[in-house]
Structures are given as C-alpha cells and as structure tokens.
Amino acid sequence: MSNYPHPLIAREGWPFIGITFGFAMMVNGAADWTWAAPLWLACLFCVQFFRDPPRPIPGDAKSVLSPADGRIVAIQPMRDPWLQRDALKVSVFMNVFNVHSNRSPVDGEVKQRWYHPGKFVNADLDKASTENERNALWLQTASGQDVTCVQVAGLIARRILCYVDAGSTLARGQRYGFIRFGSRVDLYLPPDSRVKVTIGDKVRASSTILAELQ
Question: Regarding the domain delimited by 63-212, which CATH topology (the fold level of the hierarchy) does it fall under?
Fold first, then answer.
C-alpha cells in the first residue's frame, strides 16, 4: 500500500459530503434557507468528521505512536487474545468529533490480520474489546517485537475499513484504515513497554508517543 497523501479530507468521506451537499443545495433552491439549515449542518459535520490532516512523526523505531485521535481509556496488563501472550493493553477511545483515520503505531510487517464480527456496544466500555466487531493486525518490528493493533467498532460505528493484509509493510504514522462514526483502537504491547501516557489523556494519531519498546 502506498502512503496516503493526506488531502485534508479523507477519501472515505466524499460520498457523504457530496450527498449532504447536494440535498442541501436542492432544498435551499426549492424552499427557504431555514428548511435547508439541518442539511447544511449535516454537511459541515461530515466535513469535520472526515478531515484527515498530515501529522508529524516523532520519536524513533522504539516509539509506539497513537494509532488514532481520542482519549486514553485503558492501560492494563492483559492477555492478548489474538497472539495468546501476556501483554500491556493501551486503548484509545474516539468520539464523533475526533479524526477517525487510523495510522500504524510502529514500523513493521503485518504478519497476520483477523476480522471478527460482533456487537456495537459503546466503545468507551471495556467489554467493547471482546464483544464488538473488530479488525486486528499483528505487527512485528525489525527487532522482533510484536504489537497487536485492533480497530473496534462502536455504538454508532458500522464500518471498519482496513487497507492492508498479511505481508504488507507499514511505517510509523502510515495510514492503514478508517472507522466510521465513533469507535476505539486497542494496542497490545510487550509487557515491558514503558507507557508515556495516563488514563484520560487526549492523544493524536501519529504525533503522540504512547509507549517505548524495550
């Protein structure tokens, strides 16, 4: 997969923006502008939701970058359900006002990809990690460190998009997917990773260092 050129508005959003803009123009031309106001607001919402700005890439090969914009809702030792290993779990919750483009947290090769259908409970809840629809990537760095990156659907998220598969190579901060309308991303890191954030911190995809690999 080639690097996404970051055109400011994500390609996934153009159909939604086009449809809401078209309806707003139609209603605006056929009736008073007040009737079209809700459609213009919907169009503006789509523009802000699907924004996809370029971001700086800090740190080095040991740095684990945030895969998404949002808020840290979990930092805990846990069993990685995908690789069946002890791990340190760090979770980022995205609300509808966050950028929803997902970026690779590390430089590495995609060793495996899993998709699991499921429910759509509130992504702010811990049980979303095990009950909701999700897509997981097993990333392995050049030094042999394993990182599992899991896109999790939310209460109103109904589409997880992932553009890479086993055998792909990702660079830190490289765009690999998108989740529509509220969700979370879980990272399962080696247990000895040094976490750089705390619960409640607001983070930004690619530009916030979540942890350092040993």
Answer: Glucose Permease (Domain IIA) (2.70.70)
Domain ranges of the chain: 8-52, 63-212
What does the alpha-carbon distance between residue 74 and residue 89 come to, in Å, rounded to a whole number? 7
Which phi and psi (to 5°) does residue 52 adopt?
A: -145, 70
DSSP secondary structure of 33-56? HHHHHHHHHHHHHHHHHTEE----
Distance CA 162, CA 176 (A): 6
Judge whether residue 212 has pLDDT over 90: yes
Q: Catalytic residues, which ones?
A: 183
Collapsing DSSP to helix, strand or coil, 206 comes out as coil
Mean pLDDT of all residues in the chain? 87
**What is the rounded CA–CA span in Å between residue 174 and residue 178?**
12
- Give the model confidence (pLDDT) of 40-98 as tens digits: 898 888 887 788 888 889 999 999 999 999 999 999 999 999 999 999 999 999 888 88
Helix (H, G, I), strand (E, B) or coil at 71: strand
Q: Would you give the end-to-end CA distance of the chain in angstroms?
A: 28
The model carries a pTM of 0.82
